[in-house]
Task: structure prediction
Amino acid sequence: MRRPIRRVSMLLMVMFVALFGSSTMIQAVQADALHTDARNTRTLLDSFSVERGSIVVDGVPVALSTPSDDEYEWQRQYPLGPLYASVTGYNTLGQGNSGIEEAMNAELTGTANSQFLEQVLATLTGQDPSGASVELTIDSAAQQAAADGLGDREGAVIAIEPETGEVLAMHSSPTFDPNAFASHDIAAVREVYDQLLNDPGDPLVNRTIAGDLYYPGSVFKLITAAAALESGRYTLQSEFENPVELQLPQSTAVVRNATRGPCGPGETATLETAIVLSCNIQFALLAQELGAEALRQQAAAFGFGEQLEIPLRVTPSQYPAELNEPNLMLTGFGQYDVRVTPLQMAMVSAAINNDGTMLRPQMIDRVLAPNLDVVDDPEAEILGNPISAATAAALRGAMERGVTEGLASNAAIPGVTVGGKTGTAETGERGEPFNLWFTGYGELGDRSVAVAVVVVPSENIVGDTSNVIAAPIGRAVIEAVLNS
Amino acid sequence: MTDRTAPTALQTGIVQLRDVTEAIKVRIRNPAKLRNLELFLLVIAWVLAGGAMVLVQLGALQRVDMMPLQLAGLLGILTLALHIALRIVAREADAIILPVVTVLNGLGIAMIYRIDIAEGATGWDAASMRQIAWTGIALLIAIATIVVIRNHRVLARYRFLAMAVAIILLVLPLVPGLGRTINGATVWIGIGSVLSLQPGELAKIALAIFFAGYLMTARDSLSVVGRKVLGIRFPRVRDLGPILIVWAMCLLVLVFQRDLGTSLLYFGLFLVMIYVATGRRSWMVIGLGLVALGGIAAYFTLGYVQRRIGAWIHAFDQSVYDAQGGSYQIVQGVFGMAHGGLLGTGLGLGRPDITPYANSDYIIPSLGEELGLVGIFAILGLYLILVSRGIRIGFQGPDDFTKLLGVGLAFTIGLQVFIVVGGVTRLIPLTGLTTPFLAAGGSSLLANWLIVALLLRLSDSVRGRGIA
Result:
C-alpha cells in the first residue's frame, strides 16, 4: 500500500499547491485590478473612512467632514448649503459626486498622484489617512451678491477676474442643498436625487457652465463687433443703413430693433451707436457683410467650441457650422443656433477688459495637504488673444457708453468704471420667456472683475427688460468684488 | 537454583551497548513525553485562538471585554478535557493533531464572532455562541468516542452497518417533513424549529468506515487481473458492483439533494480508498471516467450545475454577476480577499460581512480579507499538517483497516478543503461544502471532531511514533 499512499499524498500536495496558487493570484497578482473594479464596494467604503478634505472659500470651509458614529466614520457637511451648491456639488456614498467634489475627488480623498508619497508616509507612521483641502478662488462676498441678486429666479451668475482667470462667483438657480446627498441612508439619497432630477427647474444643472446653454441675444453683438473691428475694415464710426425694418433675403422674416424704431435719429447709424443702443438691424447687416467664417473664427478665438475644465467640465459654447444668409444675419445679434454658457460671455467681457488677452478660467486657488504642504497651486494661464488691444479699447469705450447713456444704465456704479452690454434673447418658442442678459466689467484702481448674468423670468412682463432685471445683479456682484 | 533472567548491568558490572540504546528508545517511546508535547502545543494554540478573538473585538469595537476570553476559555477547557482523556486512554496518540485542530476551531470562532459583531448579533442569535456550544457537544462526543472505542479494529466488523447508516443519513433529508431545503440544497434535516443538522457530514465518516472495512476484505478480489485494454488492466465486471453503487449514490445526492460538493467528496473518497487498497490505476481511470460521465450528464440536465459552471467561468460578466444565483457572492468573496492583500486588513478591521454567508461557506475569504495571503497560507499549512498526520497513519499503521481508514479520513479533510477553498478562489466551480473546523455549523464541527477522535485513536496504534 505504500506506493498508492505516496501517490495520494502527492495528489494532496498538488491540490494544496493549487490552492496556494489560486489564493496568491487573487490576493497578490490580481489584487490591484480587483481593487479598481467598479463593483468593489470595499474600495468605495475605504474612501469614506478617509477624512475627506475640506473645500474652502476665503478661509472658511464650505464643505467639510466631521466624525460620525456609523461605519463610514465621517459625515460630509455643507454649512452654507445651497449658497455654494453650484460650486461644491454633492458627495454621496457611492451614488456619484458632482461639482468640485467630483472634479477634485482624488485630491480630497488623498489619492491623487501628487499625494502618493504623503499617503505612504502617513501609513508608515500610523496616522489615519486624510485628504487634501481644496481652497477655491471664489470671493464669498461676490458669491453672496450673486445668490441674493438671483433670488428665486431661474438663472445664472458668474464672475471672473480678467487678469488671472480666477472664478470669483458662480451661482446657478434654482439650486439644491448638498447636505441632502451627504446622508448615509442610500435609499434616501436616491430618492432626493430622483426628485431633483425630475424637478422641472433642473436644480442639479450648473447653468453657469453647462446644461442646455442659453441664446446669447444681444450680448453676442460684442463678438460680432469684435470680428468687424479685427477685420480692419470697420471702426466704431463705420456707418450702416438705418431702416425701421429689415427684410431678410430669401425669407419673409423681418428684423426690427427692440425699440420698433430706427437706431438713433440719423439716416445712418454708426457701429458704436448700434452697440450702445443695442440695435439689431445694423448687426444683421454687419454679419451679412462679414460672412459666417469671420464670425465663426472670432467666436472660436473667444473659446467657442473649446472644452474647458476649470476643473468643472464646461460645455463648449456653439456657433452654427452651417448657415444660409438669413440665418447668418440672425446670428449677428445672437439669435438662431448660437448657444453660450454664461462663463463664455464673462470670458468675452474679461478679454475686452484685459486688453484682448484671455486667461484660462480657474476655480482652484491651491490644494493643501493635511500637513499644510502645498500639493497644487495652479498658475494663471493665457488662453489666447482673441482681439487686439486696440479692438479691446474700442469695445470698452462702447460698453462704457452703454452703461453711462445706453441700455445697460442700471449697471452704473458711482466712481467705478463699468462697461456693460445687455441682451434680451428670444428663445425660439413663441410665448417662452426671454433670456435676460447682462455681461460687462467693473474696474476700480488695479482691481477689475468681469461678470455675466442671465435670468429667465417665469413670464415676460413688459418693462422687465434685461436692464431692469439682469444689469442690477451684475452691478451688485461687481460692487461686492471691488469693495472687498 | 537457576536464575533464568539475564544478569543486569548492575549485577555484571558490564554496560552493554544494547541496553543503552534500549534505554533511549524507551525514553522516546515514553508516552508522557508525547502528551507533554501536545500540552505545550495546545497552550500555543490557546494563545493563538484567544489572541485572535481579542484582536477581533479590539479591531471591530475598539474595546475589549470578557466575551472573547470566555469563548477562548471554553475552547481551552474543552480541548484540555480531550487532552486529559488522551493521557488516560490513548497515551501514544498523535501529539500534533489536537493543537492544530484547536487553532483552526478557535480561528473559526474568532471570525464567526467578528461577523456577529458586524451584524449586531448577540446571545443565542450570535453564530459564535452556537459555534462554541457545538464545539462543546462535538468535543464531548469525540471524548466519548475515544473512551468507548478502545480498539478501532472492531469497527471493521460493523462495515455493513456503517454502510446502512451512511445511506440512511444520506436519505434522511429527502424524507418528507424532516428534510429542509436551504439555498436550493436539500441536505438538511430539521428537528422542531431549533435544531437543523446536515446528516451528510456524518455520513462521510460512516462511508469511510464502510469503505475501509469493505476494501480490507475485498482488496484481493478487486486486485484480480482482468482484461487489458490500452495498456491498462481493467477489473472484472462483477467487481465493478460496489463502485457502481457508490457512483449511483453520489448521483442521487447530486440530483435529488442538489449538492454538487458532497457528491464530489464521497466519490473522491471512494476512488482514493479503492486505489490505495488495490494499487490499481484502472480504478482511477474508471472512476474519473464515471465522474466525467456523471458531470457531463449533470451539466446538460441539471440547471443548477450549469449555473454553477457559468458563475465560475464568467464570474465577472455583469449579467452573471447580477443574475439570481449568479456570481455576486463569488465576486464579493474575491474582492474581499483582494482587499486583504498580502498582510490583510487586520482582524476586525476589514469588511468581510459584505459577502453573503461570510461566516460559513465564505469564511475563508473572510479570513483572507482580515489575515491576508499570509493568513491563508498559514491556515492551508495547518490543514496540510493535519492531513499529513492522517496520511502518516496510512504509511505506518499496523494493519490494512487502520491504514485505509487513516488515509480515507485524512483525504476527506484534504479534499473538502480543496473543494471549498478552490471554489471560493475560483480554481474550481463553487459548491456548497463547509470548511472543516472553521465554518459556522454544528453538523460539520461534530463530524470533523469525530474524524479527529478516530485519527487520534488510529494513531495510538502506531506504536512509539507519535511525533515521528
Chain A touches chain B through 34 residues (CB under 8 Å).
